[in-house]
Amino acid sequence: MSYLLQNGTAILHDVNERVRIIKTDILIDGNRISKIGEDITAPASATVIDCTDKIISPGFVDTHHHVWQTQLKGRHADQTPSGNLTAKLFTAEDVFWGQLGGCLEMINGGTTTVADYAHVNISPEHNYNAVSATAASGMRSVFGYCFNPRLSSTNPMTIDPNGFGGHAVPTFDELAKQSPWADGRVKLGLAWDGFVFAPKEYVDMLMAKVDEYKIDLIQTHISWKPGKPSWPQALERLGVLSSKFLMAHSNMTKVDADLYRKYDVHYSSTPSTEMQVALAFPVIAFRDDLGVKDLGSLGVDCHTTNAAYLPGEARIGLQSARGARAQVAETRGKVPLTVGFSVEEAFNLATIRGAHAMKMEYQIGSIAEGKLADLVTFDANSPAMVCAGVHDPVAAIVLHSSPADIDTVIVDGVIRKRDGKLMTVELDGSAKEVTGRSSLEWAHVATNLMRTRHRIQGEAEKLDYEDGQKKVMQAFGISESDLEDPE
Ligand SMILES: [Zn+2]
């Protein structure tokens, strides 16, 4: 397919990755941007999309997200560590719907690429269904297969610390054989928090597989408390730290930051969950006192507790960083002269910096000839964006927009949202088997999310969450004496 986006206001990046706004046409040929320029003549095969009064943005790149969790939305609003371990309550079918719902929420909000941290290694089918739902949704994804500890029983909650038992390794091998999926749009990655705690033979075994399977993205969460233990320092001691790592969360010491710099390790700041779950104050990705500002990116983390809308996370991160900076001045009895950080920096974290974090900067993250066609158009004249959209399109997106302002989303050259509505999801192979259908409208997805949520909710009510939260913290090396409730 070929599309000509005509007469839009496009947000481009120059060679220094500074934003450049131009009035232009954009021609998409197959899954690539083939031409950018004024008055492009539409090829006979091209469908013309009028982009007058539209802002054309690169698709957003979400560098840390547990995509399967949709049926748990709302459950963890007032809690610290949210319910990743409750994957145990999900059947393989539940995971299909949760994953599809998660991907479609992201696409609706203009996210076109995600680093998925998939805590769904309950059975092989849980993983296969997650991959198949991702492929069906149209999302570009690195599916981070997960060896994390699992719940071995739910009541009382007991955690099996060894995520390598049973099907775990054979399923990883099988997925590696299958990867990539959907013409390369979805590919396998590794997601594991065990580097610091697990026996060395597991680390060696996994790293050998990473090499053998040519996996180029390894995701890991870092500790709640900086330095207790320090993930980057432990990874260096193990001799495995490399630019393949993508660290979830922005809490770090200067020593950690120096290691990120030395090994070109990128990190994902997830402002909403970092502040809710006390992981970090998401300011590192803005200010440069640790010298790793350019290694930062943004993630949604848990759409159980916040919207899967990356410009929203950019906004929260930006304003938190401005607030923290103002507080520094205030402690000296001063008032800040400027706001310090720009909407452009926030926008770049959600786009081109995310592409760098995923080692995909030559393919995605900005609008350029030859790059993959992952594009989002916003209605510059919407009630939320009007005037701002003309004055400063980047400010309009970062500070004023919501998913309701997004008119069109294109991923890999395929339209996934048009005229403000998600397109029909076409299904084949195993997705067809799971759902018994060959296509799905959003209403079908919502009905099935509600149906499966009802059953999961019944099971979840039997859980002792307070006990579970303590066990999750223990799994990350946090003891009771580390905890307190501040004013
Ligand atoms: Zn996470």
From TrEMBL:
Domain Amidohydrolase-related: 55-415
A Pfam family: Amidohydro_1
Highest taxon above the source species: Eukaryota
Residue stretches spanning the membrane: none
GO molecular function: hydrolase activity, acting on carbon-nitrogen (but not peptide) bonds
Entries under PANTHER family matching the protein: AMINOHYDROLASE SSNA-RELATED, CHLOROHYDROLASE FAMILY PROTEIN
Designated name of the protein: Amidohydrolase-related domain-containing protein
Organism: Saxophila tyrrhenica
